[in-house]
Amino acid sequence: GQQLNQSPQSMFIQEGEDVSMNCTSSSIFNTWLWYKQDPGEGPVLLIALYKAGELTSNGRLTAQFGITRKDSFLNISASIPSDVGIYFCAGLNYGGSQGNLIFGKGTKLSVKP
Amino acid sequence: NAGVTQTPKFRILKIGQSMTLQCAQDMNHNYMYWYRQDPGMGLKLIYYSVGAGITDKGEVPNGYNVSRSTTEDFPLRLELAAPSQTSVYFCASSYSEGALYGYTFGSGTRLTVV
């Protein structure tokens, strides 16, 4: 089946630093989604991308839908302690069977104050 | 504004026991999903439903069953619990096909089978 390669697996950064993570796939997706999961909670949608080349921001977060439709990037600027959590990318194709949202394995972010 | 509510939050089962994980949403979403999350493995789809009375298998359905008698509820049933089913289970719902507006997740049920 389709798989997403998300990297890095984990990051340890200093408060104030910028963060970059990405997702790649061998398949094309129509939509890319980025979620954040806090400890003991379910994932929460951060950003949704619907067009190749699209660049979308949500506060300090910026995500891009790759031109090839096979990748996506998430950047966090000026990290703060509450950015700690696991970030998941997810890819989606319309028109196929329902329930075809494919998740990456996550990037675990730790922020040192 | 409850969103997606999952119960229980934690459960320990013995091998061979059965249980039902409850999921309810109050957003009038047609689409509902069950995922399991294992450490470092992301989320895997177990079952999904596109509306009351309609369910279908996801990527990892073995050992589970679901039903969807109402729009609001989508319970997940484990009939003969096995240690391999130790995981965190998430229920999610979405308004439209393909999660155009993203899925809304519950806060999860952490299940341990011993």
Strand count, sense and barrel status of the largest sheet of chain B are: 7 strands, mixed
Secondary-structure element pattern of chain A, one letter each: EEEEEEEEEEE
- Report Rg of chain B: 13 Å
Distance between the termini of chain B: 36 Å
**What is the radius of gyration of chain A computed over CA atoms, rounded to a whole number of angstroms?**
14 Å
Number of helices of chain B: 0
Helix content of chain A: under 10%
Q: What percent strand of chain B?
A: over 45%
Task: Describe the overall structure.
The complex is a heterodimer of chains A (113) and B (114). Chain A is globular. Helices cover 0% and strands 54% of the residues of chain A. With 113 residues, chain A is mainly β. Chain B has 114 residues and is mostly beta strands. Chain B has strands at 4-7, 10-13, 19-25, 31-37, 43-51, 54-57, 64-66, 76-78, 87-94, 104-105, 109-113. Chain B has no helices and 11 strands. Chain B starts with a strand and ends with a strand. Helices cover 0% and strands 49% of the residues of chain B. The chains are: A mainly beta (113), B mainly beta (114). The A-B interface holds A 1, 4, 6, 9, 30-31, 33, 35, 40-45, 48, 88, 92-94, 97-101, 103-106 and B 4, 31, 33, 40-45, 48, 50, 56, 58-59, 90, 92, 97-108.
